[in-house]
Amino acid sequence: MIRGTWYPKGSANRKKASLIVNDSKKFSIMSEEGEIELVAGDFLGLAVSDRVGNIMRRLTLPDQSIFETLDNNAVDACLKTHIHPANSRSLFFQLESSHRMLFLSFIVIIALGISLKWSVPWASGLIAESIPQKVREHISRESLIVMDAAIFKESETSVVIQKKIKNHFENEVLPTLSGDTLKGSAFTLHFRKLSRSTAGTEKQIDIANAFAFPSGDIIVTDELIRVANNQQEIDVILYHEIAHVLHNHGLKQVIKSTLVTTIFLMLTDGASFVEDILLGFPVFFIQSHYSKIYETEADKFAFELMLKNNINPTVFSDMLSKISIEKKKEAVQVDEQNENYFSTHPATSKRLKMAKKYAEQFSKQRQP
User: Fold this and answer.
1) Which of 92-96, 170-174, 231-235, 307-311 has the lowest mean pLDDT?
2) pLDDT of 252-269, one tens digit each?
3) Taking every pair of C-alpha atoms in the chain, what is the biggest distance, in angstroms?
4) Which of 119, 187, 244, 328 is most enclosed, with most CB atoms within 10 A?
5) What angle do CA 344, 347, 348 make, to 5 degrees?
6) Which element (helix H / strand E) includes 193?
7) Are the beta carbons of 334 and 342 closer than 8 angstroms?
8) H or E segment at 324?
9) If pLDDT is split at 50, 70 and 90, which confidence band does 102 have?
10) 19: alpha, beta or left? (left if phi > 0; alpha if psi -120 to 50)
11) What tens digit of pLDDT does each residue of 148-157 get?
């Protein structure tokens, strides 16, 4: 018997429950009291998430409901006993397989005496590139749970509009990227309402922003959709977020901020390494922002896509300006502690100048 929590399909409701598997490889999810069978089926048909240390394990049932448990040892024993396909190496060992290379690379950095200015970004990039997709998905899923509880609210954008934007993203935006560019990443849009309170009042101000998780999950806020005049203005922001994912900007930024700790944990405890990033991601989104280098790299990627897809880069600069104007309107109402709150995408004059440069290139390529 494996104790855990059961989540019905498409619902945030939860029930304490137990997973029981018999000798015929049939499973049952029983209520905490053991009186009600919630779900039953073929054990081999369960989709089991990979093990990441002692972090919560997720089992997706045939009816798409979810069973989660912290009893990883019991899950592993059950997988082995009943010869489940998921009885393979945990993600910890996938990470561990790259430890020797990472360790030797780090020693080389020290031996060569490369300055911190260059060695820290390089080492951060190396570590970020080594993180498997399954771990990225776990980090992103758990970070989103934290952010949903702490800062996000359920989207108020109509289901019709959400579906329209998602369909456009999947059928029009992503197909413009080659397989080599995507590097195996899978992108999914999510919609949330994001607000902050003003100083000395209970008034809430809606925030226009977008957030990209390392898994390819992208959060678009209701206010961003509201300030956009058309689909292109949303697309160019999504181009920018796609770049953050493909270039590992979020992972690099979090790892770079705690590089020494990160390397130590990777060499000694893979699970703690993942947990450290899990803690770092929500903090990064709430209190920090991408470096200017990462923003410039993401901007260039977005501008190149705009030229490829026949979108005038002024669309991007217009969107940045609108978001900037919204922030300036709010600035007089926000206390000093929140001055840089959610400033992950500051609209600087340098970025606007870059947009102008690409807009000129756009005009030239359209000339007969």
Assistant:
1) 92-96
2) 887 776 654 445 444 444
3) 76
4) 244
5) 115
6) strand 188-197
7) no
8) helix 314-331
9) low
10) beta
11) 888 899 999 9
